[in-house]
Automatic annotation (TrEMBL):
Name recorded for this polypeptide: NADH-ubiquinone oxidoreductase chain 4L
Function: Core subunit of the mitochondrial membrane respiratory chain NADH dehydrogenase (Complex I) which catalyzes electron transfer from NADH through the respiratory chain, using ubiquinone as an electron acceptor.
Gene name tied to this protein: nad4l
Keyword Glycoprotein: no
Compartment(s): Mitochondrion inner membrane; Mitochondrion membrane
Matches recorded under Gene3D superfamilies: 1.10.287.3510
GO biological process: ATP synthesis coupled electron transport
Organism this protein belongs to: Sabethes undosus
EC number per UniProt: 7.1.1.2
Coiled-coil region: none
């Protein structure tokens, strides 16, 4: 019974983080933070599932390494955007400019 409550809590947290990801349109940093929170919740769900089913947790290490790569890529895009445009507003640049 307790496991069902934990799954519901994870799903509600994922729902709220996905709503935050969709609603934050002004700043790239807020979007990246909500995306990292979604990945963290998915990692928690994966660990909970793998430990509950008595599987090996090697897949979680692969997932965690891909999450780190995704985070580094997002931060590098953020740094390059701040260096070229001076801020992280989406409205301050056009995609057509390159």
């Amino acid at each position: 019974m307790m496991n069902l409550y934990i799954i519901y809590i994870f799903l509600i947290m994922f729902l709220f983080s996905s709503m935050t990801f969709v609603s934050s349109r002004k700043h790239l940093l807020c979007t990246l933070l909500s995306l990292e929170f979604m990945v963290l919740i998915l990692f928690s769900i994966l660990l909970f599932y793998l430990s509950y089913m008595k599987f090996e947790s090697y897949f979680s290490m692969f997932f965690l390494s891909f999450c780190v790569c995704e985070g580094v890529l997002g931060l590098s895009i953020l740094v390059s955007m701040i260096r070229t445009h001076g801020n992280d507003y989406f409205q301050s640049f056009s995609v057509l400019q390159c």
